[in-house]
Amino acid sequence: MQDWIKNYLAAQTRTTESIDVAGVARVIELLRTALKEDRQVFACGNGGSAANASHFATDLGKSSSDAVGKCFRVLSLTDNIAWLTAIGNDYSYEDTFVRQLQNYGRAGDVLITISVSGNSPNVLKALSWGRDHGLKTVALVGAKRGQAAELAEEVIVIEDTHYGRVEDAQMHILHLICYAFVENPGIART
Q1: For the segment 123-146, what is each residue's pLDDT rounded down to a tens digit?
Q2: Number of Cβ within a 10 Å radius of residue 5
Q3: Element (H, E) at 43
Q4: 8 Å CB contact between 60 and 168
Q5: How far from each other are the two terminal CA atoms of the chain, in whole angstroms?
Q6: In this predicted structure, what is the pLDDT of residue 188?
Q7: 167 vs 142: CA distance, rounded Å
Q8: pLDDT value at position 20?
Q9: Partners of 112 in the beta sheet?
């Protein structure tokens, strides 16, 4: 078991090292601009990626906002269970994120999608709508990339297909984004 753990951790290190630093910096700049222009930031994904979206919204909305002295307007589209189930039941599961964006999203806002496969229909529908309506679109995807990589303006690919390792690396990215503001609050004023 110890060898398996060591091998898993070694693979996780390789996965984390595949993070595109320049891509993360570009997303941080998108959020710096969103904060400056009082734009909304949305995050979404399914399963573990839904939890990552929720975690990201919490960190950006609380810790990053506290550090820079101005509130990020951030919303995880995965958090309103009543709305998600109403949309899924009355329309379709594919509409769970896009129907919320139709209520809230405006040109210039930022949509961050999180998906290992890059092919989740509800994520793709949100990206397509966001792109068509002037939102800045970001896709965090695994090595298979999927259609999300074709739809988003900014794509950060994690070079692995193991769901756990990719989701962990995606959370690394989301933490990097948040802690860029927590540990460098001056970037929000430039």
Answers
A1: 999 999 999 999 999 999 999 999
A2: 9
A3: strand 40-45
A4: no
A5: 50
A6: 85
A7: 9
A8: 96
A9: 43, 138
> How far is the C-alpha of 58 from the C-alpha of 137, rounded, in Å?
20
Per-domain residue ranges of the chain: 2-189
Task: Please name the residue ranges forming H helices in the chain.
Answer: 2-17, 21-36, 48-58, 65-68, 81-90, 98-104, 121-132, 148-151, 163-183
Residue with structure tokens 């329309």? Answer: 91
Confidence (pLDDT) at 45: 98
How big is the CA angle at 136 (ends 133 and 138), to the nearest 5 degrees? 120
How distant is the alpha carbon of residue 187 from its chain centre?
Answer: 20
Residue range 2-189, CATH number: 3.40.50.10490
The H-or-E segment that residue 42 falls in is strand 40-45
- The 10 Å CB-count burial string (b at 16+, else e) for 75-109 is bbbbeeeeebeebeeeeeebbbbbbbbeeebeeeb
pLDDT for res 113: 98
- Residue segments in the chain with a per-residue pLDDT below the cut of 70: none
| The pair of three-digit structure tokens given for residue 48, joined into one six-digit string | 């573990």
Residues 6+ apart with CB under 8 A from 140: 112, 113, 114, 115, 156, 158, 170, 173, 174
Q: What is the Cα gyration radius of the chain? A: 16
Position 29 scores a pLDDT of 97
